[in-house]
Amino acid sequence: MTGDSPSGLTHIDSRGNARMVDVSAKPATPRRATAQGSVRMRPATLELITGGEVGKGDVLGVARVAAIMAAKRTGELIPLCHPLGLDSVTVDFSPAPPDRILISATAALVGRTGVEMEALTAVSIAALTIYDMCKAADKEMVIGESWLAAKTGGRSGDFRHPSPPA
After folding, report:
1. Which of 45, 57, 86, 93 could form a disulfide with 41 if both were Cys (CB 3.0 to 4.6 A apart)?
2. 33-43: per-residue pLDDT in tens?
3. C-alpha angle with apex 31: 30 to 33, nearest 5 degrees?
4. Is 132 a catalytic residue?
């Protein structure tokens, strides 16, 4: 491949130009990634969400749908990211009293490239949706760190985050 790196796994070619990584020679294998994150809020805001009392509706239900939709469109949102036909996306929320909602998203497929970006995108959009739906009650919410918690499959092998943020 003229202009490509020897490994073929870089977004920069030998001329310094950005490019999409060519994954055509890689075998399709099962791949799964889980990302996590959180939103910190006033305790009263968490109570509104868990009690179903937010005027805009079911906050976590809407955030789940938004996260799944975003994961499916990651290739349109992140430059040079491959568009993928995901086999599944799951999004879970865990209220963590007194003042947090923890978010976990898992993306999976059988393909030639990983799904880490899809899982991370899902967590980010879920957090933004929670903020959007609750900002009238609490503009001081803080979207916390998000991170890749685990991945399986692919050439780089399995990964589990050694020490996720507290």
Report:
1. 45
2. 999 999 999 99
3. 155
4. yes
